[in-house]
């Protein structure tokens, strides 16, 4: 028997529940994260996930605490010589009693080489300070399993975050200003009936100035169509004429509902279309070929597509939400109920198709809940699926990507210079077992070696432009050191992306974030 989900502590998580709701909090509370290496950047990231209630975390780190670790707020001087994994796990566990933290005092590289299946148990992996070859090996293992890897790094005054996962689906993108879904050019019968039941000409002044702007626009669209052979305003001139017609209907100059109708007139003339991102989902083979192993997201997409082709008559389900408007309480509640009922009817139709699809592939009809179906329908216009490039693909860029790198590093202010310099530092480590600048006696000799590595790396990806030597000099000067302010900033960015990936809300980074602490600027690239 499956255990009931643990109740959410609404008092503890009050503020974040307002951001991502109960569903998002449950996803967060059910996630199991793995952090590779408890350096300052790694623990800062994990701190920002423990506090909002990530379900469980495991720190894998085989090092002992030394003097260089004392820049980490989760390491005390009294811990010198102790397991870094155990020390940081203990202190992170103190932040939230509801989170289960575990330490594995082993080298991540060893586990990747000998027991890589260990990582299959996790929802998401955060990798900090993992050598390039081992990182690539790990990514190859978990990428097909769609386990996200978030690679984080603070290197002197520079920091990066890289997200790698095969596919990430988004239902709640949390757009700041989602468009209204009023269907005024394609009104459903109940809306037409409500509009026709109201006679603006015979209304008293109070009701006239408090009739919802939706009704005002519906009546004007009907009048326009009757006078123009059944057609709605199409050209810019016609739309302007329509707006003038709308505002002429007011009895007094200060009727707020007519002002609302006037402002919404142009937008309401636009034909409702299915967004390109949603059309792309409908055209995906994953939606066309549903099997028992298909993710719930694709089952829902298939049902949604079938609804659009049938009951929806080419349109997505009504969301059910309406904007605030100048109206009497009675009028507003009436029109709100009409939209909510239509949204419920559409969701029920989609639900019927979901159940039929599940039954056809041999899955229980209730394996996707009614609440999930309703939420999917409500946010249907904002669905998205991000397909990320793997870390291996990034190492073998297309011609277009190579051209981007070449053009970017020709600009001394471009953040791409730091990306290339850090990649060269990784190659230096692979060849010499240390990062450039790590040993004082080698600093002067490291520059020509690092420069040659950089040139070879750029030629391999068909980039003829050379990297400015100043960036390599800074990389050597940094010596792979972690500065806590940079580690804290990168930890904040990375944890934010982890929450997006875990909750499937908001739109996560795709795929590389670079921060330049020399001038406090940042840039994202899709590499």
Short description:
This protein is of the alpha/beta class. It has helices at 14-29, 40-50, 84-93, 108-114, 132-142, 189-196, 205-208, 213-227, 236-247, 256-268, 276-282, 285-288, 296-309, 329-360, 370-378, 391-395, 399-409, 416-432, 443-460, 469-478, 484-503, and strands at 32-36, 56-60, 100-104, 124-128, 149-155, 158-164, 168-170, 384-386, 512-516, 521-525.
Your description of this structure?
The protein is of the alpha/beta class. The protein has 21 helices and 10 strands. It has an 8-stranded mixed β-sheet with strand order 3-2-1-4-5-6-9-10, with helices on both faces. Strands 7-8 form a two-stranded antiparallel sheet. The protein has 4 domains: 14-173 and 483-525, Rossmann fold (3-Layer(aba) Sandwich); 189-268, no CATH class; 276-386, no CATH class; 391-478, no CATH class. The protein starts with 13 loop residues before the first helix and ends with a strand. The protein has helices at residues 14-29, 40-50, 84-93, 108-114, 132-142, 189-196, 205-208, 213-227, 236-247, 256-268, 276-282, 285-288, 296-309, 329-360, 370-378, 391-395, 399-409, 416-432, 443-460, 469-478, 484-503, and strands at 32-36, 56-60, 100-104, 124-128, 149-155, 158-164, 168-170, 384-386, 512-516, 521-525.
